[in-house]
């Protein structure tokens, strides 16, 4: 019998935060004795003592320890997905802590949807000293409209899908995500392709992780948001023929006026947020086309 849930955690050079992640998995599995859970850990070429920490972890449930030397979160996720056997595949990050009721809440969320589905969970700020970014705070379920752009609707730090989804959608694009040329948006690219296959996308607030991302300086936040914009811009270029991408870009352009009429004040290091976001998306689109041209020229 396949496990009820395969939990995938990819890690690189975060041994300290990983310890809390692993401890939270122990607690969450212990709190769900009726469920069969396997954990897949992928070390993405760590240079700290992550390998030692992974080897020393000896839980009472199946754990598969894998190694992907080539940098890139998408590559690490693809390696882990190839090993997953669960009816539901869930992903979280190596700086996240699962709530104790994570697994029953996750399984219940999928029991309430039909067919192939992707569901993102709630992401709370793990440390109040960290800046309030990379969180998902809504306290009610939502379903993404079929023709919408999924960026920001759910996040890869707490994302799950039925086992048949990767078989229909394909692998994560290794050009996107942390450690790759386009920096971010590997999860959004996956979601765009899934929605094109008419796979439903939901958000469910009941399965929760705390995100201990550690960013406390404005320059760290600004760099993170610039990277997100760059990744989204590369994604725009990749999927330019998709009408939802063109609508998303049109909204980005229309939002420029909001820098004057309704400015964002929550990111202290960024004065004109909508112009900042569009500028980095345009950088990402140019970067995508340049990268594609270089690959064609070199025969890659």
List the defining traits of the structure above.
nine-stranded mixed sheet; 19% strand; alpha/beta; 300 residues; 10 helices; globular
In which range does the helix fraction lie? 40-55%
Mean pLDDT: 96
Number of helices: 10
Number of separate strands: 9
Strand and helix layout:
Elements: E1 5-11, H1 15-30, E2 37-43, H2 50-56, E3 63-67, H3 73-83, E4 88-93, E5 96-98, H4 102-111, E6 117-125, E7 142-143, E8 158-162, H5 164-169, H6 186-196, E9 200-211, H7 218-238, H8 243-254, H9 258-261, H10 273-298
Parallel strand pairs: 1-2, 1-4, 2-3, 6-9
Antiparallel strand pairs: 4-8, 5-9, 6-8, 7-9
Please provide a written account of the structure.
The protein has 300 residues and is an alpha/beta fold. Helix content is 41%, strand content 19%. The protein is built from ten helices and nine strands. Strands 1, 2, 3, 4, 5, 6, 7, 8 and 9 form a nine-stranded mixed β-sheet that branches. Helix 7 (218-238) crosses helix 10 (273-298). The protein is globular and about 55 Å long. The mean pLDDT is 96.
Can you describe this structure in just a few lines?
By secondary structure, this protein is of the alpha/beta class. 41% of the residues lie in helices and 19% in strands. The chain has helices spanning 15-30, 50-56, 73-83, 102-111, 164-169, 186-196, 218-238, 243-254, 258-261, 273-298, and strands at 5-11, 37-43, 63-67, 88-93, 96-98, 117-125, 142-143, 158-162, 200-211.
């Amino acid at each position: 019998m396949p496990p009820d849930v395969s939990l995938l955690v990819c890690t690189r050079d975060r041994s300290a935060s990983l310890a809390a992640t692993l401890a939270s998995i122990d607690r969450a599995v212990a709190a769900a004795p009726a469920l069969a859970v396997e954990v897949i850990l992928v070390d993405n070429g760590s240079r700290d003592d992550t390998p030692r920490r992974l080897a020393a972890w000896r839980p009472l449930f199946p754990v598969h320890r894998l190694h992907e030397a080539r940098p890139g979160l998408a590559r690490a996720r693809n390696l882990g997905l190839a090993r997953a056997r669960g009816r539901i595949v869930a992903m979280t990050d190596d700086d996240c802590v699962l709530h104790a009721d994570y697994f029953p809440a996750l399984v219940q969320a999928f029991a309430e949807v039909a067919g192939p589905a992707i569901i993102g969970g709630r992401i709370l700020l793990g440390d109040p000293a960290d800046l309030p970014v990379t969180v998902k705070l809504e306290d009610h379920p939502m379903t993404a409209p079929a023709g919408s752009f999924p960026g920001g609707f759910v996040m890869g730090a707490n994302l799950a899908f039925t086992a048949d989804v990767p078989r229909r959608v394909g692998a994560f694009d290794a050009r996107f995500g942390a450690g790759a040329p386009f920096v971010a948006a590997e999860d959004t690219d996956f979601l765009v392709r899934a929605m094109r296959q008419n796979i439903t996308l939901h958000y469910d607030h009941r399965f929760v992780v705390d995100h201990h991302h550690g960013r406390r300086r404005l320059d760290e936040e600004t760099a993170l948001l610039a990277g997100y914009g760059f990744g989204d811009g590369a994604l725009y270029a990749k999927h330019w023929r998709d009408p939802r991408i063109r609508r998303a870009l049109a909204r980005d352009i229309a939002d420029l006026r909001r820098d004057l009429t309704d400015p964002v004040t929550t990111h202290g290091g960024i004065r004109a947020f909508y112009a900042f976001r569009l500028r980095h998306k345009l950088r990402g689109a140019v970067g995508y086309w340049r990268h594609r041209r270089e690959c064609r020229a070199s025969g890659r």
